[in-house]
């Protein structure tokens, strides 16, 4: 009796853990970041009365859109940090064009969670490659190599070796749009398969205990 009880308990524990993992995965897949007041793109934010701007050097990236280009507000360096602070705290309705690393580093220094550091317009993210040219025997090579390694390890910089599949997966995971009907049905289908497999395994374990001779 003790052997049978121990086996049943172990099977039940395994099934519970398996079901728990399936439910957690399902909730993660169904979870979205859609929040009332967040906009899908920059054009929508501007049309809803949000001002848009940033440092003077970044305005050239928006010359292709006359409406955004003409309304681009250049923030002087003297009040850049104060303006950004007001935006993060919700005191000002403004869309900043700036580096994500700067925003997250500032929020981290102020003890603000990354998820509460504003809404990112995913369709407007630009990837800018970084190229550093130095002479072969330059005295800056050693400190530059050291700091580049630290930046890479901290996540502030990213090597240009990301595979297309990985990039596509990261873009899909950051999409705030709700799941489609087909995606939802697929999630529940996998959940149903998990339940069936768990029940099947549970029955096999009980049959094994019932018919196989005990030591």
TrEMBL record:
Keywords: Membrane, Transmembrane, Transmembrane helix. The chain crosses the membrane at residues 183-204. This is (apollo) hypothetical protein. It comes from Parnassius apollo (Apollo butterfly).
């Amino acid at each position: 009796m003790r052997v049978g009880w121990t086996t049943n308990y172990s099977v039940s524990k395994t099934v519970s853990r398996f079901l728990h993992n399936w439910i957690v995965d399902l909730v993660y897949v169904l979870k979205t970041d859609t929040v009332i007041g967040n906009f899908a793109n920059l054009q929508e934010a501007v049309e809803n009365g949000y001002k848009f701007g940033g440092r003077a050097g970044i305005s050239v990236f928006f010359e292709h859109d006359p409406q955004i280009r003409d309304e681009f507000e250049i923030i002087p360096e003297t009040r850049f940090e104060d303006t950004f602070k007001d935006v993060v705290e919700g005191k000002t309705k403004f869309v900043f064009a700036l580096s994500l690393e700067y925003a997250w580093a500032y929020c981290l220094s102020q003890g603000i969670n990354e998820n509460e550091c504003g809404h990112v317009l995913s369709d407007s993210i630009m990837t800018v490659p970084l190229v550093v040219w130095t002479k072969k025997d330059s005295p800056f090579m050693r400190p530059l190599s050291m700091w580049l390694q630290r930046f890479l390890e901290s996540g502030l910089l990213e090597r240009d070796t990301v595979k297309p599949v990985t990039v596509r997966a990261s873009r899909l995971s950051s999409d705030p749009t709700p799941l489609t009907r087909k995606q939802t049905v697929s999630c529940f289908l996998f959940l149903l398969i998990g339940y069936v497999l768990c029940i099947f395994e549970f029955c096999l374990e009980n049959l094994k205990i019932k018919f196989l001779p005990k030591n």
